[in-house]
Amino acid sequence: MSLMCKMNGQCSATKGMCIHEKMMAAIAMIAIAGAVGHWVLHWF
Predict the structure, then answer these.
(1) Could you give the CA distance from residue 39 to residue 35 in angstroms, rounded to a whole number?
(2) Tally of CB atoms within 10 A around 12
């Protein structure tokens, strides 16, 4: 993930992780939580 951001030139050395990476991580977490809630816990 960090390599992708570095190639795009969106990262700064001070931030460490760029906004794009944070968004991708958040979407992945929501997707995983939704999948677990749906198939494992049968919430919806």
Answers:
(1) 6
(2) 8
Specify the DSSP class assigned to residue 13. Answer: T
What are 35-44's pLDDT values in tens digits?
999 898 877 6
Q: How many CA atoms lie within 13 A of 6 on its CB side?
A: 5
The pTM assigned to this predicted structure is 0.49
Q: Alpha-carbon torsion 40, 21, 6, 16, what sign? A: negative
Show me where the domains of the chain are located: 2-40
Cα(6)–Cα(42) distance, integer angstroms: 39
